[in-house]
Structures are given as structure tokens and as C-alpha cells.
Predict the 3D structure of the following.
Amino acid sequence: MMKRMEFDAWRSASLIIQCSQAAAEVTKQQIPQVDVLEMPNGVDPQYFTRTSPRAGGDTPVLVLTAGFGYGPTAEGLRWFLNCVYPLIQAARPDVRFLFAGSAAAAAAASMSPLPAGVQYISDPPDIRPTSESGLVFVVPLLSGGGSRLKILEAMSMQLPVVSTTRGAEGVPYIDGVHLLLADQPADFAAAVLRLL
């Protein structure tokens, strides 16, 4: 039903703007008579910038910022906490994990009790201090769609990123250059540990 509604909206448009080359190509294939413009997403690097240097000796913190009321984000958080984080903690017991964003408290309550070393900040007025506290930004998404602006924000704040392939959709990248991709728990944990 959603696909049909989207295609009907596309047919009635004189111009369609898509945020990725892949989405633009799908649109052109489905509705060739409509003009399609690709306009990649971005973030304001003046706003998403690090205001203090990383503290070298502090406890290593992994960070995820997102809207946790979105089903795929909650699913990814659960997968990370149950399947990936224990592997990381086994190798680095000093590691901590902080997730922050809208509905983080509800997500935490649904997974209570949280593993040791896990904290959350629900509905922060400004997400930047959370990102700034981290050493590695994780994007453990297993489903969902759209552009991952959180990755662009993290990169703008000089945070290295580990993501699933699905989690990095909509962002132009080269694996191993701009971020590290891993889709299996052991591979994801190994990528995080490599960056730490």
C-alpha cells in the first residue's frame, strides 16, 4: 500500500528530489517521465563540531544517538546490547556504552535491566555533548530505511563510526576509509575493538 501511494505521488509530481543516487535511480526506473534530482543529505559542520579535545585516559565510551521510538532503532539497540556489547566487554571490561535521544528512557525500560556499563540520556536538549563524550559511534541497525544523518553528525564531530551495512544506507562511504562495516556480532565487536 505504501509503495503504491509513493508511486502515485511520484506520478503527480513535476520534480522529485531524492537524497541518494540509489533512490534517484529507483525513481527514474519506476517513473521515467518525471524529472529526478539527487540532492545528498548533509549536516552543518559549524554546528556539529567538537568543542574540546578527546580525553586520552578516560574510560572508553561507545555512543549511539537516535530516536528510539522508531522500531528499527530499538531493534538495533537490542541486538547491540544482547549480541555485540558482551563481546566488546569481554575484551575490554572498562568499556561503557551510552545511548541518547528521543524515547531513550522507554527503550531502556523495555530492556531492563540494562547490562553493566550501559547508560542512557532521554530527550536531551542538545545531542552534541553526548556525541562528544564518545570514542566510537555505533550504528547497529538491522532494518529500516532512509539516510543516516546520525553518521554524518558523528563524522562531523570527528567520531569514528562502526555500522551495519543497513545502518549506513543513504550515506556515501568507502568501507575501511570513512567508516567500518560489520553485519555479524563478532565482526561488529572486532571493528569497535580495532578502533578503541
In short: The two ends are 44 Å apart (CA to CA). The chain has a mean pLDDT of 91.
